[in-house]
Amino acid sequence: MRLHLRLVLWVVISVAWTSPAANGQTSLQTNGSDPLPSWNEGAAKRTIVAFVVRTTSATSPDFVPKPERIATFDNDGTLWVEQPVYAELAFAIDRVKELAPQHPEWKRDPALAAVLRGDLQALESNGERGLLRLMMVTHAGMSTTQFAAAVSRWTSSARQPRFHRLYTDCVYEPMLELLAYLRANGFKTYIVSGGGVEFMRPWTERTYGVPPEQVIGSSVKTVFRILDGTPVLTREPQVDFVDDGPGKPVGIEKFIGRRPVAAFGNSDGDLQMLEWTAAGSGARLMLLVHHTDAQREYAYDRDSAVGKLDKALTEAQKRGWVVVDMKRDWKVVFKPVQ
Amino acid sequence: MRLHLRLVLWVVISVAWTSPAANGQTSLQTNGSDPLPSWNEGAAKRTIVAFVVRTTSATSPDFVPKPERIATFDNDGTLWVEQPVYAELAFAIDRVKELAPQHPEWKRDPALAAVLRGDLQALESNGERGLLRLMMVTHAGMSTTQFAAAVSRWTSSARQPRFHRLYTDCVYEPMLELLAYLRANGFKTYIVSGGGVEFMRPWTERTYGVPPEQVIGSSVKTVFRILDGTPVLTREPQVDFVDDGPGKPVGIEKFIGRRPVAAFGNSDGDLQMLEWTAAGSGARLMLLVHHTDAQREYAYDRDSAVGKLDKALTEAQKRGWVVVDMKRDWKVVFKPVQ
User: Fold this and answer.
1) Do B268 and B244 touch, CB atoms closer than 8 A?
2) Chain B closest CA to A325's CA: distance in Å?
3) Under an 8 A CB cutoff, do A219 and B254 touch?
4) Which residue, A19, A109, B154, B293, could crosslink B327 as a Cys pair with Cβ 3.0–4.6 Å?
5) Distance (Å, rounded) from C-alpha B240 to C-alpha B245?
6) Which residues on chain B are in Cβ contact (under 8 Å) with A187?
7) Residues of A numbered 104-123 whose beta carbons fall under 8 angstroms of chain B's beta carbons: which are they?
8) Does any domain span residue A13?
9) Is residue B334 part of a domain?
10) Is A276 on the interface with B (CB under 8 A)?
11) How far is residue B326's CA from residue B294's CA, in Å, rounded to a whole number?
12) Yes or no, beta carbons of B276 and A20 under 8 Å apart
């Protein structure tokens, strides 16, 4: 399970990326109760709070009118766990196993047979074509309603292998606080993820407070048809849009039509979103979550097959973007489970 | 200027459409002041008000929770004038004239030469290819920022040929009231138009109170690049998405991820949006604006080259969708100009 899995899912269409701007930073105190109690005191928290204060105070030279307070968040590795493999890949694997009895022919497909044997090494050896095949048989060939139902069934039962929690419980408490803090200050919070948009929408509202119309992601083509007198949107086995790397600013412009003033990510796939955000005029906040906590979560960056953080880390250091050190900056990692 | 111009702009990719549900109707009085003063009393107004009352009263069996109150509006012919030609075509024609000095080679292009001579018959005789060419040279080959600036310049100066008003002043007062009435009752109002999304976004917030992120439309492909150290989104001469006919439910699912409970249109290009809306469970409102007022605006339907209303009118009559008779139902047509 290496290299190729970084390309898995939606990122099968290759991308090449390249680089601008800086954010300022002041030290202001928040008044009243702490809006980010799971964050340790330090530069990261200070920069976040200062940004919110100076962009939302009517008398501030950096004031941003409410309609322009757009904040975009990556999902995998920024809001929830992406190790040991993306949740959406785990979903695809489980889904192949679930559907296999209806598809005896899958045993003759090297990639799908590998999945059915639980042999992810063999899946990887089939390269991108195998992964694309895995994605298409699990993500297409049904209606949008059927797919959403399959996702909901999976997210309400599948558990992350290390933490034995539902995936939707493997979300970062400090980031939930950050989402809520921004919203309380008039920001509109979006998810802008390389993951499939319809894989996220069934649970983002409940999990993050982000409604489906504020979720941007990768997609397959859908087609409108009348079947037996009923209008249906069917998911076709063809990639429509890859919302990763340079696709993120494209997706942001396509769906939102405004440039964000704040952007949050954790990997090289988020670099262009942060660059696009940084290049706007006025106050800006660019932040990367750096996974440095092998004990409470995972520690990975420049050499990771999943969620590789290399170029974006170098850029962030060079330009003074906020780099959250998970181990140092977060008091708790996961949200408490009831 | 016939037939082909119906295909103009974004609808150059051919579409084939086909057909479900009904809406109920009660007679309720609105309390307090009239939310739709430009609407004459009658079935259309009664049905709209009854729908809003029964979907927003907490004790109503048809109550719709606020996050699900999605209302989608077509633009051309539903919110603003689309005759004698779509505003976006007028923009493209003006833009060709504006840019022609920098493009002497356009004189050798039959379609563009026809536009430069003001000979729209000749443009039409070049068929869809000529129209596509016109669209691509005026809508692509620049950054998203440059295109938005060109649109803003045009909308602040170009005038509709019959009414001699800015196009953004050729908007229907009764529909502005309807947008505001729905929003005041917790509905999220979207534009879902066959027109170019980036052609609408620069002015929809000011004109309709609909922010850019609630505008869905046709689009060209955009590409993220770093030019001289600055991140830029460039518009490529390639159609990305045609948001018309069966493309409208596709666009709605892609951008919103929820099915609307109310949908408003005026032509066959809106039929699938209304069908998709009607096919959801619970209370629904489907409405068509029928242009019946040659004196105050225009009268056209089944045989019109622009905004043809034929199949959708038949469906609406069959299923009891609201058909607004502009002449009978609207006290005033246009918003008052200051």
Assistant:
1) no
2) 27
3) yes
4) B293
5) 16
6) none
7) none
8) no
9) no
10) yes
11) 10
12) no
8 Å CB contact between A259 and B230: no
Minimal-distance CA residue of chain B relative to A200: B257
Instruction: Determine, yes or no, domain membership for B17.
Output: no
Question: Which regions of chain B are under pLDDT 50?
Answer: 1-8, 12-30
The DSSP call for residue A90 is: H
Domain annotation covers residue B280? yes
Picking from A18, A231, A240, the nearest residue to B20 by CB comes out as A231
The pLDDT score that the predictor gives to residue A10 is 59
In chain A, residues 171-200 whose CB comes closer than 8 Å to chain B: 188, 197-198
- CATH number for the domain harbouring residue A39: 3.40.50.1000
CB A270 within 8 A of CB A286: no
Q: Which residue of B has its CA nearest to A220?
A: B254
Question: Is a pLDDT exceeding 70 seen at residue A15?
Answer: no
Q: Do B213 and A249 touch (CB under 8 A)?
A: no
Q: Do A226 and B255 touch (CB under 8 A)?
A: no
**pTM listed for this prediction:** 0.91
Task: Name the residue among A188, A184, A205 with its Cα closest to residue A49.
Answer: A184
**Which string of b and e fits A91-128 if b means at least 16 CB within 10 Å?**
bbbbbbeebbeeeeebeebebbbbbbeeebeebbebee
The predicted pLDDT at position B10 comes to 60
Q: Quick one: which of A29, A73, A69 has its CA closest to A216?
A: A73
> Helix B144-155 vs helix B197-208: angle between axes, to the nearest 10 degrees?
50
Please give the residue range of the domain that contains residue B220: 3-12+24-329
Q: What amino acid is encoded at B241 in this protein?
A: F
- Report the residue from A226, A254, A279 with minimal CB separation from B230: A279
- Cβ contact, residue pair A231, B275, below 8 Å: yes
Write out pLDDT tens, residues A57-71.
999 999 999 999 999
What residues of chain B lie within 8 A of the CB of A279, using their CB? 230-231
Indicate the number of domains in chain B. Answer: 1
pLDDT digits (tens, 9 = 90+) for B31-41: 569 999 999 99
Of B211, B226, B249, the CB nearest to A67: B211
Of A215, A224, A249, the CB nearest to B233: A249
b vs e for A245-283, b when ≥16 Cβ sit within 10 Å of the residue's Cβ?
bbbbbbbbbbbbbbbbbbbbbbbbbbbbbbbbbbbbeeb
SS3 string, B90-124, reads: HHHHHHHHHHHHHCHHHHHCHHHHHHHHCCHHHHH
Q: Which long-range contacts (CB under 8 A, 24 or more apart) does B205-208 make?
A: B205/A67, B206/B168, B207/B168, B207/B171, B208/B79, B208/B171, B208/B176, B208/B179
